[in-house]
């Protein structure tokens, strides 16, 4: 009866065992199995004519079983490529800065196929970052904000896996280059350079992050006496307030960011500027004013008058009132570089009945005022 040789399995990886079994031998016949360089194995067939031997796979090649009575049989063993467990690492963002969250993702594959359910330990030379479990795509991630500025070598190591691949202990590294922490800076400037009490002063704050403008930041301007106002930075990172309330002397103005949409930590960052305000001249003088009748003299536009005053602080607002400083306001003007201010107003039929007016302007001590006459123009 002829021998029939079967290999189970017929394809193995290097180091994996397989069984060579024959049927059709004569009961009690000694069957000799040979494979590659392994020692031949002689096995006595049982009463059914069956015999088997176990070998460890080394190379692809023939396995032979032979007996003195039943002859020989041959089968070929195939060695498959060894299973290869690989870890690849990726990180985002591409160029992080110190304190910024960085996500590290490990992808675990076995001969190119994702390995799900593997437990991955992420670490640096400074210690562990965290543990993740791979999903169906073979990916596990951790996110950390603790990476310092400089080159950080991150290692991902498989510490548990349910796969035919030998993945446990396999690791990979990636270097994450972290930039210096972003720096938010607030700088201040003011105009004019040498204001006097009562003169409008514009204070501008420029907010930058590592030198780049920060638009949309909300800035609170204040002095030791209280808030001056709030501004929002433009595309150039600048916000401004204008005030006429600064008293004579050294005024320390603080600009503080109270809200900002930026990767920089800007909220709470402030800058200061000292504005030295000179004393007001304190000699506001209202000049006599007269009005001319309009033609036709309508009740609501009965006459036109020009009001003027001198001695105001350059840039200060001068307000012209009928009668006293609490009277109706007819117009306002900004004092020029010489301290002169004037404006023209249309008077109604009731306003021409006033015989005087008062000019007022802010000063260090409160408000300066001066009164003068108002009548019909005779020429």
TrEMBL record:
Residue ranges occupied by any Big-1 domain in the UniProt entry: 86-178, 185-277
InterPro entries, from UniProt? Answer: Big_1_dom, Ig-like_fold, Invasin/intimin_cell_adhesion
Q: Which SUPFAM superfamilies match?
A: Invasin/intimin cell-adhesion fragments
Q: Which Gene3D superfamilies match?
A: Immunoglobulins (2.60.40.10)
Q: Which processes are annotated in GO (biological process)? A: carbohydrate metabolic process
Q: Which superkingdom is the protein from?
A: Bacteria
Protein family according to the UniProt entry: Belongs to the intimin/invasin family.
Question: What is the name listed in the Swiss-Prot or TrEMBL entry for this protein?
Answer: Ig-like domain repeat protein
Q: Which organism is it from?
A: Streptomyces lydicus
